[in-house]
Amino acid sequence: MKITAVEAIPYAIPYRKPLRFASGEVSTAEHVLVRVHTDDGVVGIADAPPRPFTYGETQRSVVAAVTELFAPQVVGTRLVEREQVDARMSRTVGNPAAKSAVDMAIWDALGRTVGLPVTELLGGFTDRMRVSHMLGFDSPEAMVTEAQRVRQTYGIGTFKVKVGRNPYRLDVAVVRALREHLGDDVELYVDGNRGWSAADSARAMREMADLGLLFAEELCPADDVLGRHWLVQQCDVPFIADESAVTPADAVRELLAGSATALSIKTARTGFTRSARVHHLAESLGVESVMGNQIDSQLGTVCTVAFGAAFRLTAARAGELSNFLDMSDDLLTEPLQIREGVLTVRPGPGLGVEIDPDKLQRYRSDR
Ligand code: MUC
Ligand code: MG
Q1: Whether 260 contacts 240, CB under 8 Å
Q2: Which ranges carry the Mandelate racemase/muconate lactonizing enzyme C-terminal domain (predicted)?
Q3: Can you say how many angstroms the Cα of residue 185 is from the centroid of all Cα atoms in its chain?
């Protein structure tokens, strides 16, 4: 049960088409596979997707943080000492993707060691989640076509629409076209990635008032303190804090300040240990939460669904579990399947998935 080594392996897999949103664009998944080894010969795995434009981490910085900062702190601990590991890693303020991958790889190793799925160790509420698909910037026609294809092929009926372009009416036209073409049965919500001002956000929300939106996410920067508070107070749907709530304490600050009324939980950002803290806060404070997507690979998605399915609150809403569909390939031996709009948790100990050694050899960028 003792951790003997932690590896960080950079790899790059191209996307079939780039995903564009207000704070950036991704055309290649430049992620880091983290492997935690134990003295019993068990290997736990997790994925770190760096988001330079959001949290300042890069592929190289994740490799350095894992191998130089966090590995020395966790080697020698036992897999069950997760709070010890969290306390040690928490001394460093930043590096959320690096910390989270170490945390989740330890949970995977623990599950494999005790012969139980991580989702059951976390909470075991259900074994599945409805899927929400994220639509990146494009013309209204292209985004409607994409949504129709995803709905027909995978049965997905919930869409997160990226907004935050200027002028804001570009995005309002997209959301209106989606509602008109997809009908009232689909769930739609919007994510601005801080791209609009508070005033334009309020205008856009007024103009979309008849479109039955489920949520609004991070429409303007949380650092526009009074503007954001003013916006959130007049918003008639839950307002999700995403990149403004990187830690559990950030989440409390945003909620208590009245600058958010719901939370996005991303295992890529808060791992399993800290995502559980965020979840318990959301539950205790009585706010909704959505399992978010940090533009995850299949391994990242496995982590999101394992966590989201573990709790009643997170399983209630569709989780953002389909971004990997746009990747040209992946590292897992068995690809994930979304059927009738649902993704199930992989059975088996730990996260229940394995890395294909040939694919890792092909895509790793350190040799
Ligand atoms: C989201 O919810 O913002 C875009 C950047 C990132 O880190 O996650 C995505 C989706
Ligand atoms: Mg977001």
Answers
A1: yes
A2: 140-238
A3: 25
Residues 142 and 284 in one domain: yes
Distance of alpha carbon 305 from alpha carbon 296, whole angstroms: 11
Residues classed as catalytic = 162, 191, 217, 242, 266, 294
d(CA 60, CA 299): 20
Protein residue with its CA nearest to atom 5 in ligand 1: 294
> Which of 191, 193, 266 should be mutated for ligand 1, with most atoms under 8 A from CB?
193
Segment 67-114, tens digit of pLDDT: 999 999 999 999 999 999 999 999 999 999 999 999 999 999 999 999
Q: Where does residue 218 fall: left (phi above 0), alpha (psi -120 to 50 degrees), or beta otherwise?
A: left
Residues 207 and 107 in one domain: no
**Domain extent at residue 299:** 120-344
E-only strand ranges, 250-360: 262-265, 288-291, 319-320, 342-344
- H-run or E-run covering 38: strand 24-38
Average pLDDT over residues 329-346: 98
Question: Strand (E) positions, 136-179?
Answer: 158-162
